[in-house]
Amino acid sequence: MLIRQILNNNVVSVTDTKGTEFILTGKGLGFNAQAGQDVDIAKVEKTFRLHDDRVSDRFKVLLNEIPVEVIQLTDDIISLARNALGARLSESLYVSLADHLYYALERHREGQDIRNPLEWEVRNFYRKEYLVSRQALALIASRTGQLLPDAEACSIALHIVNASMNTPDGQVMEITKLIFQIQNIVKYWFGITADEQSINYQRFVTHLKFFAQRVMNGEVLDNDDEELFSQMPEKYEKTLGCVKAISDFILKNYSHTMSSSEKLYLTVHIGNVVNRHKHSI
Predict the structure, then answer these.
(1) How many structural domains are present in the chain?
(2) Structural domain harbouring 22
(3) b or e along 193-210 (b: 16 or more beta carbons within 10 Å of the residue's beta carbon)?
(4) What is the CATH number of the domain that holds 101?
(5) What is the pLDDT of residue 278?
C-alpha cells in the first residue's frame, strides 16, 4: 500500500493496487513518512475502509482533532456492537461516536458529567443496545482509566440505534419521544403498568420503533387492510378506542394520518400487551 496523505504522526491515508483508499492508524505511522512511499505495515494497528466519501472526509478532519486512542477505542466499540447485535451500522457512527466519546471523557475529567434525559426510555426501548453500551463503558474504563457514569451508556446506545436505523442526526431522539408518548397513552387508557420483561411488550416496542420512524419520514404503511380493520372483533372495542386516541394525537402533533393497516397492527400489538393485565382493564 502506498501512502496517499499523511494526516498526522499516527494516521495516514493509503491506496492499494486497485486505487481503493484506506485510513490506517498506528503509533508513529506517519512520522518521517512521505506521500508515495510504502506504508510500514508493522506499525499499523487499525485499518478503516469507509465507502461514503462524505463520511470519510469528516472522519479525516476528526482524526486531526482528537487522539488516535479515542478513534481506536471507537472502532472496538463498534465491532462489539456489530457482533452483539448482528446489525448493519452506518459508517457515520465512526464520526458521531468518536466525537461523543472524546468530549464525554473531557467532561468527566473536569467533573462535568451530563445526565441523559432519555435514560429510562433507552433502558426500556433499546435494551440490547443499552447492554452493549454498558460493556462499552467497561472497555472505556480499561483503556482510559475513566469510569464514565451510566448515563453515558444511554448516550452511546442512542448513537448505536441511530446508526442501525440509518436516520439523520437527532431523529432517534424524536422517535424515542414518540414511542414514549404512545406507550403512555396505552398506560393511561387501560390503567396498567406494562410488564416490560414480557415478549409481547418487546414486540410492541419493536413495532413502535418502525412505526415512529415512518412517521418521522412522512411514510405511510398501507397494505389495503380497510375491510379487515373494520371487522375487528368486539373484544378489541376498548383497544380500538385507544388506537383512535393515538391516531388523533399523532395527527395533531405530527400531521400524520394513520392508515387502516397501521391501526390494525397497532391494535393487535396493544391487545397482546394488555391481555396480560385483564384484571386492570
Answers:
(1) 3
(2) 1-49
(3) ebeeeeebbbebbebbbe
(4) 1.10.1790.10
(5) 54
